[in-house]
Amino acid sequence: xxxxxxxxxxxxxxxxxxxxxxxxxxxxxxxxxxxxxxxxxxxxxxxxxxxxxxxxxxxxxxxxxxxxxxxxxxxxxxxxxxxxxxxxxxxxxxxxxxxxxxxxxxxxxxxxxxxxxxxxxxxxxxxxxxxxxxxxxxxxxxxxxxxxxxxxxxxxxxxxxxxxxxxxxxxxxxxxxxxxxxxxxxxxxxxxxxxxxxxxxxxxxxxxxxxxxxxxxxxxxxxxxxxxxxxxxxxxxxxxxxxxxxxxxxxxxxxxxxxxxxxxxxxxxxxxxxxxxxxxxxxxxxxxxxxxxxxxxxxxxxxxxxxxxxxxxxxxxxxxxxxxxxxxxxxxxxxxxxxxxxxxxxxxxxxxxxx
Length: 355
Fold this sequence. Notes:
Elements: E1 22-29, H1 52-57, E2 67-76, H2 83-97, E3 104-108, H3 114-124, E4 131-134, H4 147-163, E5 177-180, E6 183-186, E7 191-192, E8 201-202, E9 210-213, E10 216-219, E11 242-246, H5 254-262, E12 266-271, H6 279-290, E13 294-299, H7 314-317, E14 319-321, H8 327-339, H9 345-354
Parallel strand pairs: 1-2, 1-3, 3-4, 4-5, 11-12, 12-13, 13-14
Antiparallel strand pairs: 5-6, 6-9, 7-8, 9-10
Helix pairs in contact: 3-8
């Protein structure tokens, strides 16, 4: 993993006009920085091998949108995202946004765990300046690579929000955003929905926040749930051990018993339908909850919400409903809540109802 934490002021470089917004572009690797030997190969490539300077050089139009300060935070395939790297990224973003020399941040990321990183930042960034994540489904070496346009659009969104806060207040205070395939999504809502398509990211429950195309940015709705400056959570040195299990036909309690024995602090269950849980798994989870382990019910379905006291008797079993958060985002929120000292089921349910 290559890291850089340069804190030098942003210059007007690349021919950019000094009055343009100052945007830091933090690269973490991923398919957007991937390369293959054959331009027709969109699956057998190595992620994270193209450096941030090369990514920027492929999009000369960026100089007409913003003054760019590039940093290579990491060079990883996002399937291998780690908790320490989350800590590094969140801390670096907060440091940059606390400076008057930075108007916003764009993060290039792999698609596999982008939705998790975006939600983590949505809850831990302490600024109302724009933070926009973007990625690509095709490597930089591919025919019709989608990364350059996604990067241009992400910087365009960040620059628009940073430079037009008074004229277009709908864009400010929306928390962390994801710009992908001309759409703008909230970090809380967005999920990856395809293994190959360039429109792989959607907000299936309530739709995108808006769109960006040919330099035009439009927000069509606002974010309601608490985030960023209204969030009680912050990145700390310790991450509580939280894992995910799934419910399915014929599932046993082996995984839950092993996790309890390993000393986990929380378990998120990807239930069927409305968060329903196989009786064998439910019994094991109820025993875990009785031992003080936080248990959160989510759903493996992909959209919709898990009703409290719906498919399982949450009050009696000590379970928490994840609402509309998928299991992976529910894990992020549960880790942050446990790290903040929120451990009782009633208090945790309030957290999930708030964020």
